[in-house]
TrEMBL record:
Residues 24-278 form the EAL domain. This is Bifunctional diguanylate cyclase/phosphodiesterase. It comes from Actinoplanes flavus.
Amino acid sequence: SIAKQQRLGFRRFTTSTTEDSNARLTLLGDLRRALDHGGEISLHYQPKVDIGSGALVGVEALARWQHPTKGPISPGAFIPVLEATTLIHKFTHQVLTEALTQARIWLDAGYRVPVAVNISTRSLLDADFPDQVAALLREINVPGERLCIEVTEYSIMSDPNTAIEALHRIRRLGVKISVDDYGTGYSSMTYLRLLPLDELKIDRSFVQDMSTDRGNRALVASTVELGHNLGLTVVAEGIEDASTLAALSEIGCDFAQGFHLARPMPADAVTDALRRAYAPAA
Ligand code: C2E
Ligand code: MG
Ligand code: MG
Ligand code: MG
């Protein structure tokens, strides 16, 4: 029976996590130290590119943790650990602060590059979050339009009323809202219409093999159409080869991100790329 399967599943889960939970506790202690002292966690930035013109239209901030003894630890491994505690709020605050400070540096250098920041469910649903965003924009002196927040369908659907109210408050600051990993969650058509959104970001699982998989190509094409009909910009993530980029171009997708175009890189490397792109012709 389903109940029995769930019971067994639950037992398997609890026994196998005894070890896991020790590892998580150690990681959590290390994270607490890293957030207190700084220097270990930094941001890389992955360019977002206009498929038609090839222009850099924005960057996405991606957290990187260089552990002093374990080496690099991916955000996929440490963000869930943070999210299980209130430490996530401190992390989100630090990431927003660093990303906005970098956006300010680029603005001062004459580059109006919008910066996207991934926001975890717990931060989005935190009652103070919209005011925190407002305060940081003011303190760091960045116009709201230069910030985009990426939230997942999962975040929104876990508490739609709270999420929708928060998104409205954030969007009133001029901040852009993007739905990340679109297609992997369960957002209904109704919510998609109710949400204050600017961008849909199609998950890389649909994008990656769309040049060979007709089914995924059809899903991506109809998502692009849906997004456009709702007045949204559509971005594809995870472009790893030229044929995928060509397929996206045919479909009329607006923007793309992926290793084929540019990998996540330190801020200085983005600045170099901006300087080259906007250098006066020699
Ligand atoms: P995401 O927001 O969907 O970010 C895209 C992920 O795909 C990044 O992994 C990026 O490095 C990777 N990627 C980009 N292009 C390609 C490609 O062509 N092929 C492949 N295979 N991968 C590509 P990363 O940096 O490991 O981040 C993983 C996830 O961790 C992110 O997924 C995001 O959900 C989360 N994350 C990262 N930084 C932050 C952060 O500062 N705050 C929060 N809350 N979450 C973050
Ligand atoms: Mg993202
Ligand atoms: Mg994504
Ligand atoms: Mg993704």
